[in-house]
Amino acid sequence: MVIPLIKRLVLLIMLGGLLYGFILAMNDLELVYNDFGKEYFLLNGLRETGSLNLVTGIYLDYRLFDSLFEAGILLIAVSGVMWISQHKIQEKNASFMLDKQKTPELFIIFSRLLYPIMLVFGFYVIINGHLSPGGGFQGGAIVATAILILYYIDITKTIDVKLILTIEKILFMALVLIGALSFVTTGHPFTNFIRQPEYQAIYLMTLNVLIGVKVALGLTAIFTAFLKEGR
Amino acid sequence: MSSIFSTENIALALQILMIIVALFIVFYERNFTIIIFISVFSLIAATLYTMNQAPDVAIAEVAIGAAIIPLIYVISISRQREFIVLDKSRHGFVDPDETLEGVVYDVLNEFVTTYDLKLNVCCDIEGKEEDLTNQLNVDLIISYDAEHDHYTLKGKSSSVLMVNLRKLTKDHKQISVVTFKDGDPID
User: What domain count does chain B have?
Assistant: First the structure.
C-alpha cells in the first residue's frame, strides 16, 4: 500500500522537475531561435559548397563529421540485426508452405510495372541530391523499397546477406576516406576536397551515391533478416 | 483570402486528422488495419512537412514510414499468425491444398481454429529438435511410435500455446505432450 504511493510521488516529482526545466528553457528561446545561421547559409552556402540544395550542402560539407556517424549508426544497426538472427541450420532444408504459396497475379503484374520506375526514381533522387530535394538517404530508401518489391514477384529469391554486409562495410570505409581526403588539399578534414567551385558537384554526387547504395543495401539486409527469421 | 480552403485551415484539418489516426492506431484491434493506419499517418506527416517547406524530410518520411516499415510489419505479423508443425512421421512433399487426416490433425485443426491461427505443416527438415525450435521457429514436432500406436508432441515450455494444447489433449490416450526447456541465448 505504501510502496506504490511512494513510487507515484517520486514519478510526480520527476515530472515536475521536467516541467520546471522546460519552463526555464522557454525563457531563453530568444537566444536559441535566431536567423544568424539561416542568413549565413543563404548568403554563402552555394558559393562555399557548390550545392543548390542547402540541406545537402550542410550534411555533406559543413557537417560531414555528423553525417559519418549517422551512416555508422545504420551500419551498427544492420550488424546487430544480422547477429541476433544468425542461423546454423541450412536454409536449403527449410522449405515451408508459405514459400510455396502464390502471390495474387494482379499484384505480381503491378510489381513488375512499378519496379523499374521506382528504381529509376530512386537513382534520380540520389544523383540529383545537390540540385533538388532528396539525397543519399532518401534515394537509398526508395531503391531499397524497389528491391523489396522483388520478394513479392518471386519469394524464393535468396540474397546473400553476408556479402551485402561486407560491401556495406567497404562503402563506409570509402566514405570516411573520401571525407578525410580534404585534409590533404585544404588542410581541414571532413569538408569538400575540391577547391574549384565548378567541379565541387562531383564530390557531392560521389558521396551521395556512396551513401545511397549503402543505405539501400542496409535496409535490404534488415528486411531479408526479418524474412528469414520467420522460417 | 479568408476562404475555407486556405493553407492554414488545410494544415489544421490535417493535424486534427493526424491525431485521430494516431488514436486509431493505439485503440484499434485488427493488426493489418493498424498497418494501413500507420502508413496513412506517415503520409499525413509528409504532407505537413511539405507545407512547412521541408521536402527533404518529407521524402524520407514517405520512403521509410509509408513503405518500408509497413512492409516489415506485414512480414512479421503474417509469420506470427501461423502455427508451424514439423511432422516426422510423414515423408515427402506436403501439398498446401491437401486435407490432413488422423487423430493428431483433428486435435490440431480444432486447436488452430480456436486460437485463430493458420496451420503450416512441413516435413523433411534435418537437425536437432532444440535447434529447430530455436532457430527456425518450429512450434511443434510430431513423432509417431508405430508399436504402441502413440503420438508424441514436443514443443517449447515457454510457449503459452503448449499449455493450452496440453489441456486440450488431456482426454486423448493416443497423444502425449512433452515440453522441453529453451534457454534465452541473450541475457
Answer: 2
Among B56, B125, B127, select the one facing A133 at the smallest CB separation.
Answer: B56
Distance CA B26, CA A170 (A): 41
| Partner-chain residue, chosen from B56, B76, B120, that has the shortest CB–CB distance to A135 | B56
Residues of B in contact with A100 (CB under 8 A): 96
Spatial contact of B123 and B91, defined as CB atoms under 8 Å apart: yes
Closest CA to A180 of A192, A197, A167: A192
Number of A to B CB contacts under 8 A, please give it: 82
Rounded Cα distance between B184 and B46, Å, is 40
Helical H segments across chain A, by residue range: 2-27, 29-32, 36-49, 54-57, 64-84, 97-100, 105-127, 136-153, 161-180, 182-185, 200-229
Show which of B78, B98, B127 is a domain's final residue. Answer: B78
Q: How far is the C-alpha of B51 from the C-alpha of B49, rounded, in Å? A: 5
| Parent domain of B110 | 81-180
Report the complex ipTM: 0.78
Element (H, E) at B180: strand B175-180
pLDDT at res. B73: 87
Searching chain B, which residue's CA lies closest to the CA of residue A140?
B63
* Residue B94 grid cell: 506436403
Each residue of A147-198: pLDDT tens digit? 888 877 776 677 788 898 899 999 999 999 998 988 888 888 888 888 888 8
All three cell numbers of B20, joined, read 485521430
Residues 38-77 of B with CB under 8 A from A: 55-56, 58-60, 63-64, 67-68, 71-72, 75-76
Residue B187 located in a structural domain: no
Q: Is residue B2 part of a domain?
A: no
> Would you call B82 and A95 a contact, using CB atoms and an 8 Å cutoff?
no
Put simply, whether B126 touches A (Cβ < 8 Å) is: yes
